[in-house]
# Entry
Amino acid sequence: EKVSDFIDEDDGKAICRYLETLPNGNTHEVLDDIQDSPLDNTPVYTVPEDHVFVLGDNRDNSRDSRFITDVGYIPLKNIIGKAHVIALSFTKSKDGSFLPFKLRSDRVWHAIN
# Structure
């Protein structure tokens, strides 16, 4: 269900914002940065025992477990740690800087729940 547009503060671009309802009834907001992406509607996945399904934090532009032949399900034995903080976070620079990215200082050392 579309709720409003999100305005990107860097370039003023309007991005569609939706309220998504999961099968268990939980809802959360999503931004649809890439309209009609093949990743917008994916099948139901059955994760094998002793494996995990990983989803990128930019789901319209992430190579993750939805790409069964490229990434697929990750064996638990390959998991060696747990993320607790965001060390660094960058975004594309649109201010004419010579660097192609800029630091998102509001996210540096931000705790992950």
In short: Strands lie at 2-7, 14-21, 27-32, 51-52, 74-75, 85-86, 90-92, 101-103, 110-111.
